[in-house]
């Protein structure tokens, strides 16, 4: 028996080339359940993804669930995670949260009228548009007179038309006040 053990020990170093290399980190995208926060992460495993998500989004819940953002498919095994392509979009859910699809046609437009000074004739106008709960355009008009108001309104209208006519990726258009 001792001879067999010695023989086995002698063979072990020769099989060291069979060890698999550590998985390289890959890029992924993560969002919260309400899609208000989005981050890009590099992760080499599902556990690594959960850890980095927790740290980046300041999540305190010990029980987190990862699903595919597009259809809510549960990602719970390392094999399934490894089969997903780079830049896969995930959603992290805390206890009690459930995946919901993006509401098509979800559009909210708000107008806030306020004065900087009591003697202002027209005051200021803040217009905020939120599209699909993800993209926000905000424009603040400080009205000092009728002519100034018309110029600001024309600029706002042009920016708004550009925002509404472009595809969902409006990040490349130099629209004033784009936050998300």
TrEMBL record:
Provide the alphabetized UniProt keywords: Apoptosis
Fetch the SMART domains from UniProt. CAD
Q: Does the keyword Secreted apply?
A: no
CIDE-N domain location? 24-101
Q: What InterPro entries is this protein classified in?
A: CIDE-N_dom
Listed GO biological process terms: apoptotic process; regulation of apoptotic process
Q: Which SUPFAM superfamilies match?
A: CAD & PB1 domains
Keyword Cytoplasm assigned: no
What is one Pfam family matched by this protein?
CIDE-N
Q: Which CDD domains match?
A: CIDE_N
Full protein name: CIDE-N domain-containing protein
Top-level taxonomy? Eukaryota, Metazoa, Chordata, Craniata, Vertebrata
- The gene for this chain is LOC114910984
């Amino acid at each position: 028996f001792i001879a067999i053990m010695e023989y086995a020990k002698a063979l072990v170093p020769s099989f060291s080339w069979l060890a698999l290399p550590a998985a390289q980190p890959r890029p992924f995208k993560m969002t919260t359940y309400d899609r208000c926060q989005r981050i890009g992460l590099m992760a080499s495993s599902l556990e690594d993804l959960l850890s980095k998500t927790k740290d980046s989004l300041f999540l305190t819940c010990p029980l987190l669930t990862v699903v595919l953002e597009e259809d809510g498919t549960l990602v719970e095994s390392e094999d399934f995670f490894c089969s997903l392509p780079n830049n896969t979009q995930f959603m992290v859910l805390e206890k009690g949260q459930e995946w919901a699809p993006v509401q098509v046609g979800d559009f909210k437009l708000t107008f806030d009228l306020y004065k900087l000074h009591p003697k202002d004739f027209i005051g200021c106008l803040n217009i905020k548009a939120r599209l699909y709960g993800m993209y926000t355009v905000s424009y603040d008009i400080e009205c000092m007179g009728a002519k100034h108001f018309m110029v600001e309104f024309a600029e706002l209208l042009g920016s708004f038309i550009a925002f509404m006519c472009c595809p969902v990726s409006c990040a490349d258009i130099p629209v004033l006040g784009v936050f998300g």
